[in-house]
Amino acid sequence: MARRKRHEEHENHERWLVSYADFITLLFAFFVVMYAISTLNEGKYRVLADALIVAFRHDPVVTAQTAGLSPINRTTSSAPPRPSIKAPIDTLRKQKGEKMLALAKNISEALKPLVQSGQVRMTQLPHGLAVEINASVLFAPAQAALQPDSVAALEAVAKLLVDAPQQIRVEGHTDNLPIASLQYPSNWELSSARAASVVRLFTATGVDASRLSAVGYADNKPVEANDTPEGRARNRRVTLMILEDLTTAQGGAAAPSL
User: Fold this and answer.
1) Rounded distance, CA 191 to CA 175, Å?
2) pLDDT in tens, 190-210
3) Sheet containing 120-125: which strands, arranged edge to edge?
4) Residue 140 to residues 36, 150, 179, 222, 233: CA-CA distances in angstroms?
């Protein structure tokens, strides 16, 4: 029998189309997935967000299904919001500032002749009011007893402070000239005694003693240089520090005990 001739198989040059088709299919699927991810369903996102919040906060939730509400009216039950304390504190500070300004005006009117002559200076401070009175108005040189002419002026100030709520610190100051007497061995004793004299007059006029304190600084807090007579005269002074209640202004935070 004659042999059949074997046909030669031609090489398939189009096999790359299979790989290409697979690649295009995968690329299409990739873009479909990316598009699906980029498209956000807002409603489902909100449900998911609410579910995550509840899971981490453990708050009971009234859902649309349990309450019979539409998704728009869905509410979460949570603790009532804390009232802001900033507004009450600001209001309190404003009221304290207005009262302090009114008090400063009244003191300035009571000491008007001394203010006009420069013997009394008033300074508004962040924590209160400073009333600086020149020592020559109140005391004889090297003495701590109040002069009769000064008593009436101090009593007028004390009467304004009787019903005021502020703390009052009376500070005595001297110049740097040394003093050495049997009664006052140094400026420390003199400045302290002068502050105490003013405190005694205030208590006698009706100011609550628990609101008062007396401090002597000697020559350690000068306001002018002590190298001239004028500067030394300015440094010899008594300062009434009328202090605001800072703990109340800061929302009732009490100072730590030492």
Assistant:
1) 10
2) 999 999 999 999 999 999 999
3) 120-125, 128-134, 237-243, 167-173, 212-216
4) 94, 11, 14, 20, 13
Residue partners of 105: CB distance under 8 A and separation at least 6: none
C-alpha span between 33 and 27 (Å, rounded): 10
Two tokens, residue 127: 């924590």
Tokens of 214: 């007396």
Alpha carbon distances (Å) from 37 to 23, 27, 46, 186: 21, 15, 16, 86
> Apex CA 100: angle with CA 122 and CA 191, to 5°?
45
Global pTM?
0.61
Q: Collapse the DSSP code of 129 into the 3-class scheme (helix H, G, I; strand E, B; otherwise coil) and give the result.
A: strand
**Side chain identity at residue 209, one-letter code:** A
Residues pairing with 237 in the sheet: 134, 173
**Distance in angstroms (rounded) separating the CA atoms of residues 85 and 78:** 20
Residue 203 CA to residue 91 CA, distance in Å, equals: 32
Tell me the C-alpha to C-alpha distance, in Å, between residue 116 and each of 80, 108, 120, 149, 254: 57, 10, 8, 17, 40
With contact defined as beta carbons under 8 Å apart, do 61 and 46 qualify? no
Neighbours of 99 (CB within 10 A): 14
Angle between helices 148-161 and 86-110 in degrees, nearest 10: 160
Residue with tokens 């401090």: 215
Reference 198, options 222, 215, 220; nearest CA is 215
Beta bridge partners of 167: 243
Residue-wise pLDDT for 117-165, tens only, equals: 999 999 988 888 999 999 999 999 999 999 999 999 999 999 999 998 8
All domains in the chain, ordered by first residue = 16-76 (no CATH), 86-249 (3.30.1330.60)
